[in-house]
Amino acid sequence: MSRTGTALITGASRGIGLAIARRLAAEGFDLTVSARSPGTLEPVAQQLRQFGRRVHVAPADMADEAQVIELVDQHQALHGNLDVLVLSAGVGFGGPLADYPIRRFDTQITVNVRAPFLLVQRALPALRVAAASSRRGAKIIAIASITGIAAEPDLAAYGASKAALISLCESITVAEAEHGVSATAISPGFVDTDMSEWMRERIDPATMITSDDIAELVHSITRLSRWAAVPNIAVTRPGAQLWRA
Ligand SMILES: NC(=O)c1ccc[n+]([C@@H]2O[C@H](COP(=O)([O-])OP(=O)(O)OC[C@H]3O[C@@H](n4cnc5c(N)ncnc54)[C@H](OP(=O)(O)O)[C@@H]3O)[C@@H](O)[C@H]2O)c1
Fold first, then answer.
1. Is residue 158 flagged as an active site residue?
2. Which of 32, 19, 96 shows the shortest CA–CA distance to 60?
3. 27 alpha carbon to ligand 1 midpoint, in Å?
4. Is the CB of 196 under 6 A from ligand 1?
5. Catalytic residue among 29, 51, 158, 190
């Protein structure tokens, strides 16, 4: 298969980001994959290379501004343009609002919103170049959460960070229309990954959304023309929990 494009994926070592990386590699994307731990990223990259694509491993902590910027620079140095930026790295800590530790709030804002903002700023030149030569334009796809749309008990800080991420995606599409760059937030309820492990006693993981469901949506978005903007996709579980996480 000839190269479809290039993608940089954060949070690619496991869960939703890994499923997206697999899907985009299978569809012909050369990749930069990132997360904090190089030890988990290397075996992931080896799996992904079996699709015949170039895969660059770039460990980075989204809480470290210099590492966030370096990540984009590494992608550009290796792959040139950037067709698709996937923002999947994220953290979530629950707890009652009344006595919630502010440091946890700060961590979620830093990793879930500040890092995406920085990544987007740094990546825009490479995204604009890619968009200029493609009828699809260039895409930014952020994994937000349904808690950013509808409040969920004990997830005030996480929900606020994801609401901000959804808003950021809208602003990107408004600001970058003339350059052919658009952004989509995907806002799921519980997805069966390590992050939702704490809910497994209350919700059967077999009934949770799958990482492959999210990867399917990401792939579809990458195939849209530059004239179709999708600001936000809510993905929820069928039944009485519709619009709940
Ligand atoms: N699972 C759900 O129920 C659910 C629902 C809605 C939205 N989401 C969102 O979906 C995204 C992916 O979640 P997931 O379920 O796939 O979670 P996960 O299985 O816990 O994976 C999280 C990924 O992010 C990376 N990461 C975490 N902190 C990081 C940091 N400070 N810097 C760089 N990378 C970091 C992790 O790798 P390292 O630990 O090696 O850094 C890992 O690759 C998140 O943004 C999450 O908020 C998840």
1. yes
2. 32
3. 23
4. yes
5. 158
The number of the ligand 1 atom at minimal distance from the alpha carbon of 208 is: 3
The domain tally of the chain equals 1
Q: Report the Cα–Cα distance between both ends of the chain, in Å, rounded.
A: 38
pLDDT per residue as tens digits for the range 99-123: 999 999 999 999 999 999 999 999 9
**pLDDT of res. 148:** 98
SS (H, E, C) 33-92: ECCCCHHHHHHHHHHHHCCCCCEEECCCCCCCHHHHHHHHHHHHHHHCCCCEEEECCCCC
CB atoms within 10 A of CB 51: 18
- Percentage of the chain lying above the pLDDT 90 cut: 98
87: in domain: yes
- Tell me which residue range forms the domain holding 35: 5-235
Torsions phi, psi for 43 (to 5 deg): -60, -35
> DSSP state, 14?
S
- Report how far ligand 1's centroid is from the alpha carbon of 133 (Å): 32
Instruction: Give the CATH number, domain containing residue 225.
Output: 3.40.50.720
pTM across the whole model = 0.98
Please tell me the distance between residue 227's alpha carbon and the centre of ligand 1 in angstroms.
30
Query: Which residue ranges in the chain fall short of pLDDT 50?
Result: none
